[in-house]
Structure formats: C-alpha cells, structure tokens
C-alpha cells in the first residue's frame, strides 16, 4: 500500500533517565489524513507525539536516539530551527491554554512573534479567516477586542487554541487528548472540525478514548509499554487487528 | 523530572499488573451464543422431522414443524434485540463486533431455514392426499447432508474452528448435484405419465427447499469463518481483497 508519508520515524528510542519510554519506534504517518495513536496511560503515546515537534527537549535528562523525518528533514539534527519547526508542526494540548488576554491578542501573538504580517488590515483578515476556519467567527466577531479568551467556554477555548495554531500556517497539527476536558457535544464539534481541517493539514491525535480514535481517524497506531504494537488502517484495527495485544486492549480485556 | 519518572514507573507497574480481565460482557456474549445455538438446534430438528414426516407419511410429525415455526420467529426477534442492545451499550470492537454482527446474520439464515422446513411440510401435506409416487431415497439423503452441514457449522461456531466451517462450504456441491439428479429422475416420471406431474413437481419443490437449506448452512459457515478469522470468504473474494 503506497502512503504519501509526512512524518517518519526510524528506530526511534527515547529514555527519561534510565526509563526506556519509546522502544524502537518505526512509524510512517500519511499526509493529509487523521492518524490516531491509542494505548493505555504511560504507554508513550504523548511522548511519541512530542517527538514530532521536539517538545521533549524541554524535559531534563531526556536521551533520544534514531531519526524523526518530517518532510524529508531529520528534525532531531542539531541544525533544526526549533522556532520554524514548531511553527510548521503545531500542537494543541489537553487543557485549552489560552492567554489571559483578548481573543484578538491571543491570535495576534503568534503573528507578532513570527513577524508574519505587518499591515494591520492584513492581520485582521488573517484572524478573521482563522476564526472562520474553526467555526468561531460568527459567535465572537463582535467581542474580539473586548472579551478575554478565558471567559469563553472550554470548547470555544479549545477551538481558539486550534485557530492559534493554524494562523501560523503549519503543515502538521498534533493534538494531545484535545477533547478529554470537553463534554460529548463539544467533543463532537471538535471532531467535526478535525474532519474539515484534514484536507489542508496532516493531523496526529493522541487519545485514550478509543471510540474517538475509531470515529475520527483513518490510520491508527496502538502503543503498549513504549512499543508501537500495531499500525494500520483504523477500520482494520477495530474490526480485525493482527496482534492479540491490540485485540485485548480495544475489546476492553485490559487497559 | 524526578516526579515525572516516578509517575511513569507507577504506570508501568500498573500496566504489567493488568492481566487479561474477565468481563461481564463475556457472559452476555456467551448467553447470546447459547440462544443462537438453541434456535439452531430447533431448526435442525424441524428439517429432520419434515423429511421424516414426508417419508413415513405421518401427519402428527408435520404438525410439530408447523408449531415450532412460531418459536423460531420469537427467538429471531429476541436474538436480534439482544444483539442490537449489546452493540448500542457495549460498543463492541474487533472479534466481539464480528461475533455480534455475524450472530444477527446467522439468526436470519436460521429463520429462513425454518421457513423452508415449513414449506416442505406444506408440500408434504398436499402429497399425503395422493398415494406415494415412488419410495423416497435421495430426498432423505439430501436432507441428511443438509442437516450435517448445519451440525458441522454449529460445531465450528462453538469451537471457533475456521477450517471446519470452510469444509462445510465445500459440501454444498454435493447437495446441488443431488438436487439436479432428483430433478432428472422426476422428469422421467412426468414424461411417463401426465398424472404423475402434480406429485413430481411437489417432490422437485421439496428438493429445491433442501437445496436452499444447504445454501443457508453455507452462508452460516461463511459467517463463522468471518467470526474466527476476520476474513470474508463469500463469493470467493478473499483472494483479491486486501483490507
């Protein structure tokens, strides 16, 4: 099966001190699809996700071996421009992490940091587009400058975080349990949004909600104890997994 | 950093301690399988009784088949209902999902088989009004093979035996051949004397019903194969289809 791959890891190993958290991971994540990584707590799925934009660099005592190739470049190399990398590979976290500022300033922040656009009218256009892309424009257009982002609902905050990522025009969006603090209706709305976004972005989502992985993703990886046990089409993982450990996990026999 | 390491180590210990759990869900699945097996056994009895009643010309046996149909109909609804409930409440995946979906399909096949047994009885009752056309040899043989197919499928279902279910599928040809043979034989009776036509046609229909019963048994065997292996062998597509 030919996959147009966006992210590829080769013999990726990661240690937190003596703890071997990722064991020889070889994964190819296809372009412009949603890929889900599932597995029980502590299996290394978030650690793997954080390797894709070098967020693990921020933790002390981390040792990484192997290669992570994004768009042909090994991003683990010392020459990697981390600012550029994290702009290209955006990340959305479990809890919405909006800044204590207006909606407008939240979105303008990245534009200013990266010095993307100087023209104020142009900035407004880009902000409007990003809010439209995440389905927040109609709700918020009248209070962009007056409303503090923290006053939004959790779902709106999470959408705003996604808008803040896509305003920087990344190619890849990483989501680490993006719906775990949201109620089912808000979760459905975020999932709908992901389906819209996938045509423009490569999306990798880490979730311990298996139904969510089944609903939103086209490819799915199952991790256990730092190993990538199985990586296949989501349909196959949920109807006929090849590995008994995957079968036991998704049928709720452990985990 | 130290704090994070401790958390990870704890998680690791937890995962290692997690063995394969017993699930309440397993009991529900076992119960569903039991219900299906009970239905299948009754259907099997209906088929054997219908042919025995025709051969021995015993009307009271025929009535047993007619009375059983209602039980099968009720069981069909009950099993479908139970399977739907499990899908809605348990959100099954992988082998659990394959089992439940296949149980629903097998359930329909069994109900159709019971209907065919009733059809055999209906023709038999009509045949009782006239003297026998000929001693029945091949029809009971056909019925026996069809029943064996159902038997073996059920065993394969209960033992999760994919190979046994595949063998059932290959038996279907024998039944098809017998059906053709019976047709040819009865054709000669009809050519001999037009008075035979009424009875011969009814016997041809009975053979046709048995042939259909064997087809349903084959379908069930294919479902069993899917439950066990996760591969669809219907219409011989497995060779050119990759998931």
Task: Characterize this entry briefly.
The complex is a heterodimer of chains A (255) and B (243). With 255 residues, chain A is α/β, with parallel strands linked by helices.
Give an overview in words.
- The complex is a heterodimer of chains A (255) and B (243).
- Chain A is α/β, with parallel strands linked by helices and 255 residues long.
- Helix content of chain A is 35%, strand content 26%.
- Chain A has a domain at 5-101 and 171-250: 3-Layer(aba) Sandwich (Rossmann fold), CATH 3.40.50.300.
- Chain A has helices at residues 45-51, 82-88, 103-113, 120-133, 137-140, 154-166, 184-197, 210-216, 234-239, 244-250; strands at 5-16, 19-30, 34-38, 62-70, 73-74, 89-92, 172-176, 202-206, 219-224, 227-233.
- In chain A, the strands form 2 sheets. Chain A has a 6-stranded mixed sheet with strand order 6-7-8-3-9-10, sandwiched between helices.
- In chain A, a hairpin with a 2-residue loop joins strand 9 and strand 10.
- The two termini of chain A are 31 Å apart.
- Chain B has 243 residues and is an all-alpha fold.
- Chain B has one domain (26-240): Methane Monooxygenase Hydroxylase, Chain G, domain 1, CATH 1.20.58.220.
- Chain B is built from 7 helices and no strands.
- Chain B has helices spanning 2-17, 24-56, 59-90, 94-128, 138-159, 162-192, 197-229.
- In chain B, helix 2 (24-56) packs antiparallel against helix 5.
- The mean pLDDT of chain B is 90.
- The A-B interface holds A 1, 16-17, 19, 21, 40-43, 59-61, 210-211, 214, 224-225, 233, 235-236, 238-241, 246-248, 250-255 and B 1, 4-5, 7-12, 14-16, 18-21, 23, 25, 91-98, 230-231, 242-243.
């Amino acid at each position: 099966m030919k996959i147009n791959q966006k992210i590829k890891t080769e013999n990726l190993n990661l240690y937190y001190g003596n703890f071997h958290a990722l064991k020889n991971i070889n994964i190819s994540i296809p372009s412009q699809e949603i890929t889900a990584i599932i597995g029980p707590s502590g299996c290394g799925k978030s650690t793997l996700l954080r390797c894709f934009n070098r967020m693990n660099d921020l933790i002390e005592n981390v040792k990484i071996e192997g290669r992570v190739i994004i768009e042909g470049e090994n991003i683990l190399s010392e020459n990697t421009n981390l600012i550029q990398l994290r702009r290209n590979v955006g990340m959305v976290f479990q809890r919405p992490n909006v800044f204590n500022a207006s909606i407008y300033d939240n979105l303008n922040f990245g534009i200013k940091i990266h010095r993307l656009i100087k023209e104020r009218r142009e900035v407004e256009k880009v902000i409007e587009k990003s809010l439209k892309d995440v389905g927040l424009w109609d709700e918020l257009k009248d209070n962009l400058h007056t409303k503090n982002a923290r006053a939004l609902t959790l779902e709106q905050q999470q959408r705003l975080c996604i808008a803040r990522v896509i305003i920087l025009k990344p190619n890849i969006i990483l989501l680490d349990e993006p719906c775990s603090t949201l109620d089912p209706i808000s979760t459905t709305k975020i999932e709908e949004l992901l389906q819209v976004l996938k045509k423009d972005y490569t999306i990798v989502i880490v979730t311990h909600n298996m139904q969510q992985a089944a609903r939103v993703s086209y490819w799915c990886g199952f991790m256990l104890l730092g190993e990538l046990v199985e990586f296949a089409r989501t349909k196959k993982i949920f109807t006929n997994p090849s590995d008994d450990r995957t079968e036991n996990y998704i049928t709720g026999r452990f985990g | 950093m130290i704090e994070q390491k401790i958390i990870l180590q704890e998680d690791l210990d937890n995962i290692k301690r997690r063995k394969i759990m017993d699930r309440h869900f397993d009991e529900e699945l076992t119960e569903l399988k039991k219900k299906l097996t009970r239905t299948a056994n009754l259907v099997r009895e209906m088929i054997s009784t219908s042919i025995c009643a025709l051969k021995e010309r015993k009307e009271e046996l025929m009535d047993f088949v007619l009375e059983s149909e209602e039980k099968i109909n009720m069981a069909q609804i009950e099993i479908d209902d139970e399977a739907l409930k499990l899908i809605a409440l348990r959100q099954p995946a992988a082998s659990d999902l394959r089992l439940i979906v296949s149980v629903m399909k097998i359930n329909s096949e069994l109900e159709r088989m019971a209907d065919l047994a009733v059809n055999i009885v209906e023709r038999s009752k009509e045949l009782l009004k006239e003297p026998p056309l000929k001693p029945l040899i091949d029809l009971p043989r056909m019925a026996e093979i069809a029943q064996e197919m159902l038997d073996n499928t059920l065993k394969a279902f209960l033992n999760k035996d994919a190979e046994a279910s595949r063998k059932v599928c290959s038996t279907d040809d024998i039944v098809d051949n017998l059906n053709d043979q019976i047709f040819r034989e009865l054709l000669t009776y009809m050519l001999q004397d037009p008075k035979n036509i009424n009875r011969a046609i009814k016997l041809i229909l009975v053979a046709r019903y048995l042939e259909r019963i064997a087809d349903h048994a084959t379908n069930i065997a294919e479902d069993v194969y899917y439950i066990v292996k996760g591969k669809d062998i219907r219409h011989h597509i497995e060779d050119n289809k990759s998931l």
